[in-house]
Write a structure and sequence with these properties.
- By secondary structure, this protein is an all-alpha fold.
- 73% of the residues lie in helices and 0% in strands.
- The chain contains 19 helices and no strands.
- The N terminus is likely disordered.
Length: 424
């Protein structure tokens, strides 16, 4: 009688493609195909990507290569290279475009709701874990790589900052590949269900705002400011522009490694008790350095690089990272772990409830609530989509708030991880 699972069958066979250069080429082709088809005007592809988010496809296709034994994601060095070199550069390029003054001018309600969303994620995770653990107590008391709390830190990183912060939390808290694979699936499915709800609400924004008594006059002014910002900074990039962007991203990455090499041994030697705060992790200091420098650069002329595609190059780095993460996934784990989806749904309910309550109390327009939430949960990939559902010219507002998410994501997700660790 055949009792082996699909994943067990795959492991017993040698992978077909063992050269990482070849695997990288395959991943690049897959990413190219996803972006080509997602921007296609063909009705089939338009309908397909309305149902299946492109970011999910970017995770899923590489995972099939690993699941069916075409590649060996476990032993490949591609994820290590992407997480150590491309991830810090990605954080810098996505963060340097943040305009804290412009975000402040969006109005206090927009910022309040954004940080309400962040708070909902930070406290929602621990609440969800405690609720589910009351029925499944074995979820607590486990501290290995596949401990639930470690996997949840990666979801916190994704739902506050995005894919880059998610990968950061994986390394900082040492989440195992098996748990990470499960949590990526939970992250994407739950987050996109909530996004679907937001898009439905956007279609009824006028009715909802009228019932809540929200003042929407500021949104018209906001549209004009966004359009002026786009007109001022956008231009066709030259090769020089592109090389400067690469220099900034990889240059800061180099110094982030140098900083980590110096600071980490110091903390290990002088503060041995701070290991639980991740202060003994080189990766932690590397990510903190890159994020902090990115914020600093946003106050300099370097932020003008956004006008020539800094975030686009950063996003390209991010999608390469996403593909290398995907190739470590085992899709056969999904059906075996429904309890983790329950955790994810409760987590999102806490976040959504807090957002709706605060929005009603301060009588904020639905636009601020929806974009503030999606800037946390979906990041720069989907926050503009939700913003554009209200008006096309408002899409960059989603980007700006999502960039704010990149800025605080590492710090707040790390803080959420500390809470999860303490209760586990």
């Amino acid at each position: 009688m055949q009792t082996d699972t699909l994943s067990e069958q795959v492991v017993t066979h040698s992978p077909i493609f063992t050269n990482d250069a070849t695997v990288m080429g395959i991943l690049a082709i897959l990413l190219g195909l996803v972006f080509y088809t997602s921007s296609s005007k063909t009705p089939f592809w338009q309908k397909f990507y309305m149902i299946v988010p492109s970011v999910l496809v970017c995770y899923f296709l590489p995972s099939l290569l690993n699941t069916f034994g075409l590649i060996d994601g476990e032993n490949s060095q591609l994820y290590f290279v992407a997480s150590r070199y491309l991830l810090p550069a990605c954080l810098v390029l996505l963060t340097l475009s943040v305009d804290l003054k412009a975000i402040a001018k969006l109005g206090s309600k927009a910022v309040i709701l954004f940080f309400t969303g962040t708070l909902g994620i930070v406290i929602g995770g621990p609440i969800a874990l405690l609720v589910v653990a009351s029925f499944v107590p074995e979820l607590l008391g486990v501290d290995g790589p596949n401990a639930v709390w470690r996997g949840m830190t990666t979801v916190a990183g994704s739902w506050i900052g995005g894919g880059a912060n998610q990968a950061s939390m994986k390394e900082i808290y040492g989440a195992g590949d098996q748990m990470f694979s499960i949590m990526i699936t939970v992250d994407i499915i739950v987050a996109n269900l909530w996004m679907a709800v937001l898009l439905i609400m956007a279609g009824n924004a006028k009715t909802i705002d009228a019932k809540t008594g929200a003042d929407t006059s500021a949104i018209d002014s906001l549209k004009a400011k966004v359009e002026a910002f786009q007109a001022k900074h956008a231009r066709i990039p030259t090769l020089t522009d592109t090389m400067i962007i690469v220099a900034v991203g990889l240059g800061v990455t180099g110094f982030a490694h140098l900083f980590a090499d110096i600071v980490t041994p110091y903390f290990i030697e002088h503060f041995p008790n701070l290991d639980r705060l991740s202060f003994h992790s080189k990766f932690f200091w590397m990510i903190i350095f890159a994020s902090t420098v990115g914020v600093f650069l946003s106050f300099t002329k370097a932020r003008e690089l956004e006008g020539v595609g800094a975030s686009k190059i950063g996003s390209a780095f991010l999608y390469i990272l996403i593909a290398t993460i995907g190739m470590k996934m085992d899709v056969t784990m999904i059906a075996d772990t429904p309890i983790y989806f329950v955790i994810g749904v409760i987590w999102m309910i806490v976040h959504a409830s807090l957002m709706l309550i605060v929005a009603k109390v301060i009588k904020a327009p639905l636009f601020y609530m929806a974009v503030g939430s999606q800037a946390n949960v979906g990041g720069a990939a989907s926050a503009p989509v939700v913003a554009a559902a209200f008006h096309p010219s408002l899409a960059p507002v989603g980007v700006m708030l999502a960039v704010l998410g990149y800025t605080v994501g590492t710090y707040m997700a790390w803080f959420c991880g500390q809470i999860l660790q303490s209760i586990s």
